[in-house]
Specification:
Length: about 375
C-alpha cells in the first residue's frame, strides 16, 4: 500500500441486547481469515502457502519507533488493538473517489478494540475521524518532526506520520497501550469483496451520493468491491450527513459481510478460502508482531471464544465543537469513563451514552437502530 501525499507524508513502512446483535462485523475483517487459515493449514505440509501469505503482509515496527515511553501494558493479559481503514487514494486507490484528503492519506475509519483479560468479551470504540484531539509530536517520513498540535483532527495524525503517529496519538488520548495495529486500505477492501463474490445487502430507500459515486435504488443488491467501498464511504446521503452516520452505515454493511465470510469454510471450498486469505493478507498492514500467518492465526485463536453477545460496540461520546460546528469534540466526562474502564479492564458503564449514530439511519434493512448527531 502506498502512503503518499503532496504535503506532509505519512511514515513509510519498513517492511444479549439489541445493541449487541451481529457485532462480529469488524472482527471478521481482521480475524475470520485467521481462523479459516488455522483450519486450512493445520494439516501441515503446506509451508509454501505460509510463505506466500506471509509475503503479502506489509508491516510497521511500531514498538521500535515509539520506544519505551508508552502507557503500561493492560492488566492480566488484556489486549488493545488499533484498527484503521486508510483512505489513501494514491496508486490503485485513486479509482475509488475524489481525493478529499488534499494533504495526504488519512484514517477514514478508526476503532480501538479492547479484549478483556479472560479473552471472553470485548469492547470496540469507534473514533470519528473529525474528532478534535491534542496530537503529540510525530516524526514525518522525511525524518523531520511535526510539532505537537492542540485541537487537531484525529485523522490528521495518520497524514502527518502514518501508523506510528496514529498509534502514538491514540495512546496519548486514551492512556491505553496498543498491543497491535491492523490497517486495511481501500483498494484491498474492494479486492477482498470481489474475491468473496460480492456482498448482498438490502436498501430500504434509494441512495444517491455524488461524493462516493454510489447510486442504488431501494431493494436487494449484490455489491461488488467498488460499490461496497462506495457504500462504506457514503456520508452525506445517509442519516444527518455526519461522520457518525457513516460509522453506523459501515457497521451495518460489515454485519452483512461478516455473515458471508463466515459461510466460507475449508470443507466446502478450500480454494476459495485460500483466495480470501490471499486477498485479505494483501490488503492489511500490521505491526511487526502480527506480520505472519502464524501470528494472525494465534490472534484468531485468542479471539475465537468471543461471540456476538460478548461484545459491546460504541462510538466515542462526542458533541459539536464549541468553536467549529464542522468538527466534534469528546464529551470530557463520558470519554474519561470510557478510557478509564478499558484501562482497568472493566466494561464501559451503561450510564455512558453510546454515542451511536445508528446504522445508516435505517438505510440498510435489518439494522433496527436510530440516527444520531455529529458533524463533519
Amino acid at each position: 500500500m502506498a502512503h503518499q501525499s503532496d504535503g506532509e507524508r505519512p511514515a513509510e513502512r519498513p517492511g444479549g441486547t439489541g445493541r449487541r446483535r451481529g457485532r462480529r462485523a469488524w472482527w471478521m475483517r481482521t480475524t475470520a481469515v485467521a481462523l479459516g487459515l488455522a483450519l486450512l493449514l493445520a494439516g501441515g505440509g503446506l509451508t509454501a502457502l505460509y510463505l506466500k501469505l506471509d509475503g503479502n503482509i506489509d508491516h510497521v515496527d511500531i514498538d521500535g519507533a515509539l520506544g519505551p515511553d508508552r502507557p503500561a501494558n493492560g492488566p492480566g493479559g488484556s489486549l488493545d488493538i488499533l484498527v484503521l481503514g486508510s483512505d489513501s487514494r494514491s496508486g490503485g486507490n485513486g479509482a475509488f473517489g475524489a481525493d478529499d484528503a488534499q494533504d495526504g492519506a488519512r484514517a477514514d475509519t478508526a476503532m480501538v478494540v479492547h479484549v478483556n483479560a479472560a479473552h471472553d468479551a470485548a469492547t470496540v470504540v469507534s473514533i470519528p475521524r473529525d474528532t478534535l484531539v491534542d496530537r503529540p509530536s510525530c516524526e514525518r517520513a522525511d525524518g523531520s518532526t511535526a510539532p505537537a498540535r492542540e485541537r487537531a483532527m484525529f485523522n490528521e495524525a495518520y497524514t502527518v506520520g502514518g501508523p506510528v503517529c496514529a498509534v502514538k496519538t491514540v495512546e496519548s488520548v486514551t492512556g491505553l497501550r496498543m498491543d497491535h495495529y491492523i490497517e486495511v486500505d481501500f483498494q484491498g477492501f474492494a479486492e477482498l469483496i470481489d474475491t468473496l463474490g460480492g456482498v448482498e445487502v438490502t436498501t430500504t430507500r434509494a441512495i444517491d451520493d455524488k461524493d462516493s459515486h454510489l447510486r442504488l435504488p431501494a431493494g436487494t443488491h449484490t455489491l461488488d468491491g467498488e460499490q461496497a467501498l462506495a457504500l462504506v464511504r457514503t456520508r452525506k446521503a445517509v442519516g444527518d450527513g455526519s461522520d457518525l452516520s457513516r460509522i453506523a452505515l459501515q457497521q451495518a454493511f460489515l454485519k452483512a459481510l461478516a455473515g458471508q465470510v463466515g459461510e466460507v469454510g475449508p470443507a466446502s471450498n478450500p480454494k476459495r478460502l485460500y483466495d480470501l486469505a490471499d486477498a485479505a493478507t494483501s490488503a492489511v498492514t500490521t505491526d511487526s508482531s502480527l506480520a505472519s500467518v502464524t501470528d494472525l492465526i494465534a490472534l484468531g485463536r485468542t479471539l475465537q471464544g468471543i461471540g456476538p453477545g460478548d461484545m459491546d460496540l460504541l462510538t466515542l461520546p462526542v458533541g459539536p465543537d464549541h468553536a467549529d460546528p464542522n468538527r466534534v469534540a469528546p464529551l470530557p466526562g463520558e470519554s474519561r469513563q470510557v478510557w478509564s474502564a478499558l484501562r482497568h479492564d472493566q466494561p464501559v458503564p451503561p450510564s455512558v451514552g453510546r454515542g451511536r449514530a445508528g446504522e445508516g439511519d435505517g438505510v440498510l434493512a435489518g439494522d433496527g437502530t436510530q440516527a444520531g448527531d455529529g458533524g463533519e
